[in-house]
Every structure is written in structure tokens, then in C-alpha cells.
Specification:
The complex is a heterotrimer. By secondary structure, chain A is an all-alpha fold. Chain A is built from four helices and no strands. The chains are: A mainly alpha, B alpha/beta, C alpha/beta.
Chain lengths: ~80, ~325, ~400
């Protein structure tokens, strides 16, 4: 789980071009959207593709992402439970 | 249509014009595959990391030039944002196109697509300064910037006070290499963002007066002479009233258009060029416009801007003429204020 | 503004018809042009529906009597067909008789050719000509040459509001007496680039789109072109021209909210409608029909509904015709301008197909039938990426 969380942080920083951040800046419980990292709806779509590409999880409705992308912690748990690769 | 005033100009180009304007500038030497990127600017001074993380070169150049030129005019905002761009957001277009082809339509992400539309620069300027006014983007190749200028003039004749007009193009990574293989010219391909604020009324810090703009798609060389004569006449001017003519000479086969008016119309006029400094791109003529404002204000330019040896005591009225591959011509008339 | 700028000609090609008359018949018989994609090989074929014109590029070129169809992008061919019709419908024999302009708009330009040849530009000498197909002015230039215009030519690209802006610029140039006559509109062919782009935004419906419906899933992309001919009062008087309608109002505003999404309160749309009404000097109560942008995406329709409610005390009869044609991107404002003029001519408000239930929050119900009614003024909205919002108002002669 810790390894997955680290991997997720690295990927989020890379995929979303958050070049000023390091994985140490992102806490497991930080809100990714809104007041936390300040991600937006386009980032959510980027993360949906990441889920599909890296973990074989397909979301068809972007609104499903709202809960899943709450924090790195929540996302890691969801991936662990649903991954197909 | 009434003439309008230019309140400020900012140039991001292959030269360090952003900081220094046109000073002693270096000529860009053309060698094979010598695309010249815009002079490096510290964009972080103007853009927060969260705002800039999706921005390609052209968007960064455009937004920063826009912010600075509005500031320079002493304004908080403008009534309208108008951009001209030849190839638009070509970096992101190429990126998304490559992804579609290389990944066979799978695992594609939206960022490069949404940033690829031609109006991204104007849109991002509006977003960054929270401007809800008129917003427009012209994409007509080599006279995209002049179409934007014309629109700006129209707007200022329609009850608007201040408009932002700019030309912006980025090199990109892919198509430019293809262009380079088929087009022979003496200057490098480059990129830049040249932005201006225009106003309906003269202000203390106005830098020049914009008298008229005309764009036309095609013309033959003989008719060009007539076209210029009637353009000047429309503004009650004669050839002898033009102190300097600023030409988009780039060393390709279509320089014959410039040669025609250099040798038949403007023999006693100071002739200037600028693409040896800016490089060639679809909105390089916006750099030419910047050169014109610099000449009117400083009354001098570096020696490598001058094409002939005719010099004038006083540079008051300037004509710009540009075309690319014999198409997409533009005439712009400026005078000092 | 007294009457506005005279519209004396129009031309259109869309998935519901190759001519103005064919488009009208489809609108009246409430038959859409939404189908499974055939002309483009895409892996999404079974997951999307499109407003595709079922003619190959070769067949389109035949309509124009052009040889060597391979030279032209789909965007050019569609545009040339619509522009030619517009000129014919305005009874113009010599396009250069007056100071005439051509203002086209496109979002993809020659993307179909770019997609096809970008890896093989130098494999054969003939492929080199396609290097310039990415340049958005290329289609404009080709259409201008086809119709014989060499003077004032320009291209606008403000995503999905492009053609509305082209129409607006044309009117302004006539009013400023820079032009006597101008052909204005837009053209866009379907391409893999846009299909996949909208797919990544997850706003493509796998069914026929349902504008303004509570359960709408997204849009259907479409393709097409439409142009209007605008003429100055002097030309109309001198030539004793029949005027189809007047463009009485127009405006452009920016939502300044997000690169692609519209603000919840529809600020940009609200401002565009407000400014257009003001320019036309019309009260909201005299608008008889609204041809909405209504793409069928959750975001657009919610935002546009809010804007309509903000501007109109009582929202007049309205519909989105995108359920017929699909969303034709840069051409949409032109296609819907033609539909707005047809609404004035026929005194009919066209049906909003596939609608069942109102959006809970706004409770707006578009007309689900084509209805006959007195129509003097039609308001047409076109919005695009980058917060671009434009409104046109067409008035009966």
C-alpha cells in the first residue's frame, strides 16, 4: 500500500505537470481537489485515463471520480480493491 | 473610420525585446534547421505554477505579453481581447495528433486537446485577467495580426475605449520541420508574441497613431502599386509623405513584391526590414509593427534594420507592407502622435 | 439600429441535407441526421453517434464539378458547396462587382488531410502539398479561389462560436462601410482529432443527443458548412434585392471561467444575449424563438438554461437543433443562422428532438414539436471553448 501511494504521488505530479511539487509535499490525506492541491475537472479526466492505463480500471462517468479522487489514501484503497492489472 | 492611438507595445521575440525594446540586435543567421526560439523570459514572475502548468510556449508568451502591455498602458483591463495567429497552438495540436496516431486512439488525455484550439491564447488572457469583454481570434496565415488590428480599429469606432491586439505564434516541434524542407528563404523560422493596447483617444503616453489597415488575399505585382496608391489616397497621403516603409523581406522568391515597390514607389523613402531580426513566422509582421512604433518613438533603429541608405530628419509617417508566398498581404499605416 | 444588416443569400450542407430546401424539409418532418460513423475509420465507431454527411470527398467534389478531389480537405469541399449556394441564392453573377469580402471560420481546417499524410509528407512529391493543410487559412483560401474572391479574405477561429463571429464581423464591416457585400459563415469536417478530443472530455453521447433533457449524456459531433450573404443598404437598393431577413443584433462576450467548461450561472452567455438585445434595441419580450446552443452536454445545457432564465422574465419558445445535425463546431453558428432565417420565413419554431424531462434546477422545457407561430425576431446562441459566447438576432423583413 505504501509503495502504491508513493507511485500514485509520483504519477499525479508527472501527469498533471505539478512541477513545483515533490512527493513529500503531498500528504496521504490531502484533498486533491478544491482547497488541497487545487486540481480541477480536467485533472480528474487525466486521472481517469491513468486509472485505465496503469491499473485497468475503467470509469465511464466522470462524476464517479469525485469520491475516488478525494485523496491519495482513498485512491490507493480504491485501486487495491478494483485493479485488474 | 477614425484613426486610433497605440498606447503601449510589448514584444517577445527571438531578441531580448521584452526587456529592452529594439536596441542593438543580432541578425539571425540562416543555416539548415536553424529554428530560433523566443528569447528566454522568466515567466514565473507573471504566472503562478498552477496557472502555467498546462500552458505551451505560445500561450505563455501571449498571456505574459498581454499582461505586461496592459500594465504598461497604465490600464487595469481592456474592453476587448483580439489575437491573430497563423498556426495557433501548434505544440498542443501536434502533441494530441501524435497521441491519436501513435496510441491508435487509446489512453488519450484531454489537456493537449483543450489547449490546442486556435483561440486558447485569447481565452487564457481573458481568464488570467478575468475579462468578460469581446474576445476574438483570427487565423488567416500571414495577415492574421492585421485582421486583428482592423477589428480593433472597428471596435474603437463602436464605442469601446481600449482594446488589446496581439500576434502570437510558437514554433512547435513537428510541422515546422516539414515547412522548413519545402520553403527556401534567407531567414530562420522563429516565434514570438507582439501585443499592443489601442485606444480611441489620445493619452499622454500614447506611442503612435494607427491610421489605417488593409488586408487582401492575392494580388499581382502591377496591381500592388495601384493598391498602395489608393490606400494612401484614402488617407489623403502621397508616396512622398511616407518617411519609412517597413517590409517583410525574408529572402524567398516572393521578395519580388517588395522589390517592385522599393524600386518603383519608395525610392526616396527609408526602407526597413525586420525578419532578419525576428525570423519568419505567420505573425512576424506584428514584430514589424513593433519596429514601427519603436522608430516613431526613438527616431532611430539599429543599422541592420535599414535596407537602403535614405535617411530622414524626422520619421513621422510609416507604411508597413507584408505578404507571405505572394498571398495574405497587408498594409498598415502609422503616424507619430 | 434600424433594421440591421440585410441578408440576401444563404447556403448550407449538413447531415440533414445538401441544400437549404433539403435542410428545411428535414426540420419540418422532424427527421434527424444522426447515425453511425462511416467515412472515418475509428475504434470508437460503436460508442458514438455522429451527424455525418454521407458523401465521400470524391462525391462532394463532384457536386462542385472539381477534378482532383484529393487536393481538398473535407472542410474546404463542404465550405465551397455552401458558399456557392449562398452566392447563387443571392443572385450574384459577378462576385467582384462590389467591394466584396469572404470571412470564413473553421476549427479543424484540413485536419483530415493532416491526419492522413502527416507521416508521409515526403514519401511522394504529391504529398508535400498537404503540409500546409494544418494551417486554418488554407480552407478559406481554397474556397475564396473557388468563388473567385481575391481581395478581403479572412478566417476566424473561436472554437464552436466561430461562424457566429464571422457573421458578426461581416455585419460590422458593412456598417463601417469597409465592404459593400460579404460572404460569412463557417465550415468543419469531421476528423479523428476532434472525435478523440471530445471523447477524452467524456462528453460524447453513445446515443442520439438529448439537448436540455435531465438525463442528457453528451453531444453528437457533426459536420457541415453554412454561409450567408450580407449586403449594404446601397447595394440592396441599387440592385433591388430581395432581403431574406435582417441581422439586427449581435454580440460577443467571454465567460472567463474555464478553458472548456461554462460557468454555472452562464455569465458569458448572459452577457452576449444582453449586449445583442441592446444593440438591436429590442426588449426581451419581443423575441419569439430561440435557437439555443444546446449541445446536449450536462455542462452547456445547465449553464445556458441559467443564462436564459436570467435574461428572460419568461423564456420564449426555444429549441436546440443540434439533435438534427450534431454539433458542427465552427460551422454551427452558420448552420443555425440559416435555421433561424428559415424560422422567420416559415413562421415556425423547430422541434427539440429527443427531449423527455426537464432539468430539475431550471425546469425549462424546449418545444418538442415544430410549431407554427408568429415569429418576428429569433435569437441564436453559439458558445465555444475558451469561454467564447456569441449571440445573433435575426429579424423578419
Amino acid at each position: 500500500m505504501e509503495a502504491l501511494k508513493k507511485e500514485l504521488k509520483e504519477n499525479i505530479i508527472e501527469v498533471l505537470n505539478l512541477e513545483d511539487l515533490t512527493i513529500e509535499d503531498v500528504n496521504d490525506d490531502d484533498a486533491l481537489f478544491g482547497d488541497g492541491l487545487g486540481l480541477d475537472s480536467i485533472d480528474a479526466l487525466e486521472l481517469i485515463v491513468m486509472l485505465d492505463k496503469d491499473y485497468g480500471i475503467k470509469l465511464t462517468d466522470p462524476s464517479e471520480g469525485r469520491e475516488i479522487f478525494k485523496s491519495v489514501e482513498v485512491l490507493a484503497t480504491y485501486i487495491t480493491e478494483n485493479r485488474t492489472k | 473610420m477614425n484613426s486610433v492611438y497605440i498606447h503601449s507595445g510589448v514584444s517577445i521575440s527571438a531578441q531580448n525585446t521584452f526587456e529592452e525594446g529594439i536596441k542593438e540586435v543580432e541578425e539571425l543567421k540562416f543555416t539548415e534547421n536553424s529554428q530560433v526560439k523566443a528569447f528566454k523570459i522568466n515567466y514565473k514572475e507573471f504566472l503562478s505554477p498552477i496557472a502555467s502548468r498546462r500552458m505551451a510556449t505560445g500561450v505563455k508568451m501571449g498571456v505574459v505579453a498581454a499582461k505586461k502591455v496592459i500594465q504598461k498602458a497604465g490600464e487595469d483591463t481592456v474592453d476587448a481581447i483580439i489575437t491573430g495567429t497563423g498556426l495557433g497552438c501548434v505544440e498542443d495540436s501536434e502533441k494530441f495528433l501524435n497521441a491519436v496516431i501513435d496510441n491508435d486512439e487509446q489512453f488519450l488525455t484531454p489537456t493537449s486537446f483543450i489547449q490546442s484550439t486556435h483561440n486558447t491564447v485569447a481565452a487564457q488572457i481573458a481568464l488570467s485577467i478575468k475579462n468578460k469583454g469581446y474576445n476574438m481570434t483570427y487565423v488567416n496565415g500571414a495577415n492574421s495580426f492585421e485582421a486583428a488590428l482592423l477589428d480593433g480599429m472597428l471596435l474603437l469606432n463602436e464605442e469601446n475605449e481600449t482594446v488589446l491586439v496581439g500576434g502570437v505564434d510558437e514554433l512547435g516541434k513537428r510541422f515546422i520541420n516539414d515547412y522548413e524542407k519545402i520553403y527556401q528563404q534567407d531567414v530562420s523560422f522563429s516565434e514570438g508574441a507582439n501585443f499592443f493596447t489601442l485606444g480611441a483617444r489620445k493619452k499622454e503616453n500614447s506611442i503612435a497613431q494607427l491610421l489605417n489597415v488593409e488586408v487582401f488575399q492575392e494580388i499581382d505585382e502591377d496591381n500592388l502599386l495601384k493598391k498602395i496608391a489608393s490606400f494612401l489616397e484614402e488617407n489623403s497621403l502621397k508616396v512622398s509623405d511616407i518617411d519609412a516603409v517597413i517590409l517583410g523581406i525574408n529572402g524567398d522568391a516572393y521578395d519580388s513584391y517588395y522589390q517592385k515597390i522599393q524600386s518603383e514607389l519608395f525610392t526616396d523613402t527609408t526602407q526597413l526590414k525586420y525578419k532578419n531580426l525576428s525570423g519568419e513566422f505567420f505573425t512576424a509582421s506584428a514584430f514589424g509593427f513593433y519596429v514601427a512604433t519603436e522608430l516613431l518613438n526613438k527616431q532611430e533603429l539599429p543599422t541592420n534594420c535599414f535596407f537602403n541608405s535614405v535617411k530622414k530628419e524626422d520619421y513621422k509617417t510609416v507604411l508597413l507592407y507584408n505578404q507571405y508566398l505572394g498571398k495574405q498581404h497587408s498594409l498598415v499605416l502609422l503616424t507619430s502622435c | 439600429m434600424a433594421n440591421g444588416v440585410a441578408i440576401t443569400g444563404m447556403g448550407i450542407i449538413s447531415s440533414i441535407g445538401n441544400t437549404v430546401e433539403e435542410n428545411l424539409q428535414s426540420l419540418l418532418s422532424e427527421s434527424d441526421g444522426i447515425s453511425t460513423i462511416e467515412n472515418i475509420a475509428t475504434r470508437h465507431a460503436n460508442n458514438i453517434k455522429v451527424g455525418e454527411i454521407k458523401l465521400s470527398n470524391e462525391e462532394l467534389a463532384k457536386l462542385l464539378a472539381l477534378d482532383n478531389f484529393e487536393k481538398y480537405s473535407r472542410t474546404t469541399l463542404l465550405g465551397a458547396i455552401a458558399a456557392k449556394q449562398a452566392i447563387e441564392s443571392a443572385n450574384i453573377n459577378d462576385v467582384n462587382q462590389y467591394k466584396t469580402g469572404f470571412i470564413s471560420s473553421t476549427s479543424v481546417g484540413g485536419m483530415d488531410l493532416t491526419e492522413k499524410y502527416c507521416n508521409t509528407f515526403f514519401d511522394a512529391p504529391r504529398n508535400e502539398q498537404f503540409i500546409n493543410s494544418h494551417n486554418a487559412s488554407e480552407s478559406t483560401q481554397q474556397i475564396a479561389s473557388f468563388i473567385g474572391l481575391t481581395d478581403f479574405v479572412t478566417t476566424i477561429s473561436t472554437a464552436c462560436s466561430s461562424a457566429a463571429n464571422a457573421i458578426m464581423l461581416g455585419a460590422r464591416l458593412i456598417k463601417a462601410k469597409k465592404l459593400d457585400r460579404v460572404i460569412v459563415g463557417g465550415t468543419d469536417g469531421l476528423s479523428k482529432f476532434t472525435l478523440n478530443g471530445f471523447k477524452t472530455l467524456m462528453i460524447l453521447s453513445d446515443k442520439k443527443s438529448q439537448p436540455f433533457d435531465k438525463n442528457r449524456k453528451g453531444l453528437n459531433l457533426g459536420e457541415g458548412a453554412a454561409y450567408l450573404v450580407l449586403e449594404s443598404e446601397e447595394v440592396v437598393a441599387k440592385e433591388n434585392k430581395k432581403v431574406l431577413a435582417f441581422l439586427s443584433g449581435y454580440a460577443n462576450a467571454n465567460d472567463a471561467h474555464h478553458q472548456t467548461a461554462s460557468s454555472e450561472e452562464g455569465e458569458g452567455a448572459f452577457l452576449a444575449m444582453k449586449k445583442a438585445l441592446k444593440l438591436a434595441d429590442l426588449e426581451t419580450s419581443v423575441i419569439d424563438y430561440i435557437n439555443a446552443h444546446g449541445t446536449g452536454t450536462p455542462n452547456n445545457d445547465a449553464s445556458e438554461s441559467e443564462a436564459l432564465k436570467r435574461i428572460f422574465e419568461e423564456v420564449p419558445i426555444f429549441s436546440s437543433t443540434k439533435a438534427y445535425t450534431g454539433h458542427t463546431l465552427a460551422a454551427a453558428g452558420g448552420i443555425e443562422a440559416v435555421f433561424s432565417i428559415l424560422a422567420l420565413k416559415e413562421q415556425k419554431a423547430f422541434a427539440n428532438l429527443n427531449f423527455a424531462d426537464e432539468i430539475e434546477k431550471t425546469q425549462l422545457k424546449p418545444t418538442t414539436k415544430t410549431v407554427e407561430k408568429e415569429i418576428k425576431h429569433v435569437l441564436s446562441n453559439s458558445f465555444g471553448f475558451g469561454g467564447n459566447c456569441s449571440t445573433l438576432i435575426f429579424s423578419k423583413v
